[in-house]
Design brief:
With 293 residues, the protein is of the alpha/beta class. It has one domain: 2-enoyl-CoA Hydratase, Chain A, domain 1, CATH 3.90.226.10. 44% of the residues lie in helices and 15% in strands. The protein has a 7-stranded mixed sheet with strand order 1-2-3-4-5-7-10, sandwiched between helices. A 3-stranded mixed sheet has the order 6-8-9. α1 runs parallel beside α2 and α10 crosses α11.
C-alpha cells in the first residue's frame, strides 16, 4: 500500500506499507484526552482494523508528551450537554459519574478488543489517563526518560481503568497507585510496566521496527494470538475489573480529598491544586534500584 495521511480535529492517521500510525494531535494540551478525541480515536482504530492491508498499528503522541491525562480544564458548559436532555459530566451523582467514565472506557477498550496488535510509543509524560491508553495497548515501547504514573491517586480518584495488575502484579501496582509515584521509562521496563525502553531519539524507529516485524505475520494469525492472550486476561477478570474501576473511581470522587482538591482548583486554579497535591512527594519518582525508594 502506498503511503497516505489524513487528519481529523485531534488525530492524524497515516498508513505506510502494512503499518498504520495514529498520532494524538493536541500538543498544545499535551494530548490530554477529551470525549471528542476519544471518539475520533475509536473511529481511527476501527478503520485500521478494517483495512486489509494494515497488519499492525502504532499509537503515539505529537509533541513532547504521549498523553498528560484527561482534560480537566474545560467547564461543563463547554461540553455541549443540555441539562434538560442529557446526563451531566459534572454531576455529583455517582451513577452519572460512572456513566461518564464508562463512556471513556468503551472507546479506550477498542485497543483491547480490536483484532490487530497496537504498539504504544511513549515519550515525555504518560500519566493518569495517558496510562489508561498505553496499558490497553498490546505492547509499550517507552523513551528512557519518559514519565509514567498516576499521580491523581494522591487526591483526585482511582484509575478509571485498571490494567496495572496485569502488567506488574499486585505489589508494584500497589506501590505505584498507593503513592501516586511515577517511574521513568527505563525503570518501567525493569518492572514490566513497558516492554522496552530506548533513547528518545530512537523511539519512533523502534516502535515502527517492531510493528513491521509483527506485520510479517498473516493478519489472521496475529488476531488469533492476540485474542487468546486477551481471553486469558478476561478469564483473570480483566473486563469485569474495568467496570469495578469506573465505579470505584466515581465513589472516590466523593472523598474529602477529592472535594478539597476541587475546591482549591476552583478557588486558586489547577496549578495551585496540583502543587499542593504533589509537593510533599518531591520529584515524585520511585526508583526500583534505589535502596531509599
Amino acid at each position: 500500500m502506498a503511503k497516505w495521511l489524513q487528519s481529523t480535529d485531534y488525530l492524524t492517521f497515516a498508513v505506510e506499507g502494512a503499518v498504520a500510525t495514529i498520532t494524538l494531535n493536541r500538543p498544545e494540551k499535551r494530548n490530554a484526552l477529551s470525549r471528542a478525541l476519544l471518539a475520533e480515536l475509536r473511529a481511527a482504530l476501527l478503520e485500521a482494523d478494517d483495512l486489509k492491508a494494515v497488519r499492525a498499528v502504532v499509537l503515539r503522541g505529537a509533541g513532547r508528551d504521549f498523553c498528560a491525562g484527561y482534560d480537566v480544564s474545560p467547564p461543563v458548559a463547554a461540553t455541549g450537554y443540555d441539562a434538560n436532555l442529557y446526563r451531566q459530566p459534572g454531576s455529583v451523582s455517582i451513577a452519572d459519574d460512572t456513566w461518564r467514565l464508562e463512556r471513556n472506557q468503551a472507546d479506550i477498550l477498542t485497543l483491547f478488543d480490536m483484532h490487530k496488535p497496537v504498539i504504544a510509543a511513549v515519550q515525555g509524560n504518560c500519566v493518569a489517563g495517558g496510562t489508561d491508553l498505553a496499558l490497553c495497548c498490546d505492547m509499550v515501547i517507552a523513551a528512557r526518560d519518559a514519565r509514567i504514573g498516576f499521580p491523581a491517586t494522591r487526591a483526585m480518584g482511582t484509575p478509571p481503568m485498571h490494567m496495572w495488575i496485569y502488567n506488574v502484579g499486585p505489589q508494584w501496582a500497589k506501590r505505584l497507585l498507593l503513592t501516586g509515584d511515577s517511574v521513568s521509562g527505563r525503570d518501567a521496563a525493569k518492572i514490566g510496566l513497558v516492554l522496552k525502553a530506548v533513547p528518545a531519539a530512537r523511539l519512533d524507529a523502534e516502535a515502527r521496527a517492531l510493528a513491521e516485524r509483527l506485520a510479517l505475520i498473516d493478519a489472521d494469525m496475529l488476531a488469533g494470538n492476540k485474542r487468546i492472550v486477551n481471553m486469558a486476561m478476561e478469564l483473570m477478570g480483566a473486563r469485569t475489573l474495568q467496570r469495578f474501576a469506573a465505579e470505584t473511581d466515581a465513589r472516590s470522587h466523593q472523598s474529602a480529598a477529592a472535594k478539597d482538591f476541587a475546591r482549591v482548583a476552583r478557588e486558586e486554579g489547577l496549578s495551585a491544586a496540583f502543587k499542593r497535591r504533589d509537593a510533599p512527594f518531591g520529584d515524585g519518582y520511585v526508583r526500583p534500584d534505589d535502596e531509599q525508594a
